[in-house]
């Protein structure tokens, strides 16, 4: 419970800095807000600690990528979703890729129940509550939008694409041709699986 409060309120501080920068830009508009969460002590209760936060009324939506399997059109198409993903990109760049706010979800521009992923060593003495693999997944899956461009954030895809281009070059140099032969049927199976899942 204490960690939940620490994580959400730390993310809230980053969101305030993001808002201060974004709100100065012409045409950026409303900025997502991470609502505060409070820890209360109830000594007479069987569960002595609890968290309290503002009740969010409306459609609850997950805006950010938690893993490669989660695809949400509202993340890509809505203003709140795009600005939430830009917030992730902004935090990632400001912390030199050491920290990422994850699980951005909520109602409209009000977000709650967020997570933070840090590299294994943490970031400035702070350790997140999510796997550092989320940082790798974000770097691979994030697609910049108009708000990323407005903030002048650097595209992440170029680095990822260069890494992917380097891999086939190495496989061509493999002396064992049987390895290559084994890979072809696997690709064919994956293609068939992809086609069948579309129908």
Structure, explained:
The protein is α+β, with helices and mostly antiparallel strands and about 200 residues long. It has one domain: MHCK/EF2 kinase (Protein kinase-like fold, Alpha-Beta Barrel), CATH 3.20.200.10. It contains seven helices and eight strands, in the order H-E-E-E-E-H-H-E-E-E-E-H-H-H-H. It has helices spanning about 1-20, 75, 80-95, 135-140, 145-150, 155-170, 175-199, and strands spanning about 35, 35-40, 50-55, 60, 100, 105, 110, 115-120. A four-stranded mixed beta sheet has the order 1-7-6-4. It has a two-stranded antiparallel ribbon with strand order 2-3. Strands 5-8 form a two-stranded antiparallel sheet. A hairpin with a 2-residue loop joins strand 6 (about 105) and strand 7 (about 110). The longest helix has 22 residues, at about 175-199. It starts with a helix and ends with a helix. About 25% of the residues are buried. Mean pLDDT is about 80; it is low at about 160-199. This is ALPK2 kinase. It holds the Pfam family Alpha_kinase. InterPro entries: a-kinase_dom, Kinase-like_dom_sf. GO terms for molecular function: ATP binding; protein serine/threonine kinase activity. It comes from Sakesphorus luctuosus.
